[in-house]
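U., I forgot to send this yesterday:
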Amino acid sequence: HDMVRVIRRRNPKLDIILWPSEVQGDIAPPQLVEGINRLNEYGEVDLIIIGRGGGSLEDLWAFNDERVVRAVYHSGIPVISAVGHEVDLTLTDFAADYSAATPSMAAELAAWPVEEFLAMLGKEAGRMDRAMRAMVREARTRLTALVRSPAIVRPEGMLEAPYQRLDNQVRLLHLLTNRRRNTFQQRAAVLTSRLEALSPLAVLARGYSVTRTLPARNVIRTIADIQPGQTVETIVPGGEIESTVTRTRKKE
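Result:
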């Protein structure tokens, strides 16, 4: 078989599973569908090539069958359609993941030559080696810079600036606190002075007195608040004077 020969030539390490099936006639579609489904169920298949050699339109008609087209489309494994020659075209070509002009070309696509694969591995290994060396150099440079950094050479120096900022903040806090306390004290002194000026005791200290009736102790504000014979109490600086009213006189 041409496809097997091409695959063996390009990469003899590949495992090939051949699923026998008719490729033309009424029996071909169900066999092709069964093969696709069984290979999907097998679980160890990386790629499916569905194809045959050239022929007439009637010979290739099985690959236009709806059942085959749907099986190719719904396959969980990538499918290469390789039906007939380059001029031939079937519906499976549109449903497949890739359409090869011939079965031999499909085999060429499926089998990566060992030499190219090894060359690619060597190239990738070299690239990875260079990348690893670059990473090691960068890590060494960063480690050297870290070892020489002030945090390692003189770690206490890293705390000087924060300590200085903290000290400045504490001083500022004390300054603002003292300023606020002085302001409150000044305002309290002013308010105290005003309250003392309004105090009845302050009025008495200026030579005035307050007279109240006894025993109710009601302050006498007008002549109408007192009657002859009532006992009154006069508050003066240093004490009280108790007396009896003998006579009242209204101002005319």
